[in-house]
Amino acid sequence: MIKVRPAPAVRRAFAQWGRQHRIRTVSQSTFGVPADLFPQVPEELLAGAVIDGQPYIPPAPAAAAAEPVPEVVDQEPPPAPDGGPVTDGLDDAVGALVEQGTVTTAAAAADTQADAPPAPKRRPSRRGKSGGEG
Asked: What's the CA dihedral at 34, 35, 36, 42 to 10 degrees?
């Protein structure tokens, strides 16, 4: 049994529909609709209703669901003027960002690490060990 509390504006119309289908009330403003009969409830009677404690959300309109999806055409990009791979200016853009210092490439990071002095070696910690013999 599905508990339906129709919106106040359509409660009377829901009650009339419910009488035709022998639907009983479970409280002053809530109807007990059998699960097999629920899909037959007119959409306009469910607008603004609370169904089993949750607000009713109407299904998306069929027109929106049937909206055509644009066709994707697989095309080869035109060859680059110099005969190399087509990058659409990506190499130039990345080069400009690297020159500005806003992007560090893996090669640049490796060069920076190679130029850096080695990190000092750490001695093992002596915490928790007794300092002297006892």
From this structure: 80
Strand, coil or helix: what is 33?
strand
Q: In what order do the strands lie in the sheet with 24-25?
A: 24-25, 31-33, 2-5, 50-51, 54-55
Residues 67-99 have pLDDT tens digits of 666 666 666 666 666 666 655 555 565 555 555
Q: How many CB atoms lie within 10 A of CB 112?
A: 10
Enumerate residues 6+ apart whose C-beta is below 8 A from 3.
26, 30, 31, 32, 33, 51, 52, 53
- Going from N- to C-terminal start, the domains of the chain cover 2-56
Separation CA 112–CA 109 (nearest Å): 5
| pLDDT at site 32 | 94
Task: Write out the two tokens for 102.
Answer: 């806003």
